[in-house]
Structures are given as structure tokens and as C-alpha cells.
Amino acid sequence: MSLRAKRSNPKTLVIASLHFVTFAMTNVYLILHHYLAFHSALGTFNLAGMYRIEALHICGMNSGF
Q1: pLDDT tens, residue by residue, 2-30
Q2: How far apart, in Å, are the Cα atoms of 59 and each of 4, 13, 49?
Q3: pTM above 0.85, yes or no
Q4: Which sequence spans correspond to the domains of the chain?
Q5: How large is the angle between the packed helices 10-42 and 47-62, nearest 10 degrees?
Q6: Which of 65, 26, 32 is nearest to 51 (CA)?
Q7: CA-to-CA distance for 49 and 47, rounded, in angstroms?
Q8: How is 5-64 classified by DSSP, letter by letter?
């Protein structure tokens, strides 16, 4: 019943979609920006290292630190 009520409210759906898209795009931008700036300065392109570093960045940012 509540799921149907939420689904029938387009305003809530639009706001939730915009929030999700904005949040996802911000994280993607930060990952690419940090990766390019940090690793191009070092000259290393290590994907495993990038994911470890960026996971810490994003977890810290999303939790308010």
C-alpha cells in the first residue's frame, strides 16, 4: 500500500531520482579528478590502488569527515 502511494507521487520520485543522479555524478567526478590529478603527478596508473584510495575519500566525504 505504501509502495503504491510512493509510486503514484511523481514529485517524490523526481526528487529522489535527481538526488541519486547528482550524488552518483559527484562521486564519479571526484574519483576521476582525484585519480587523474594524483596518479598523473606520480606517473603511476594502478587501478587497485586507485579504488582503495578513492573508497577512503568517498566514505569520508559521505560520512561528513
Answers
A1: 555 555 677 777 887 878 878 777 777 77
A2: 33, 26, 16
A3: no
A4: 16-62
A5: 130
A6: 32
A7: 5
A8: HHHT-HHHHHHHHHHHHHHHHHHHHHHHHHHHHHHHHHT---HHHHHHHHHHHHHHHHTT
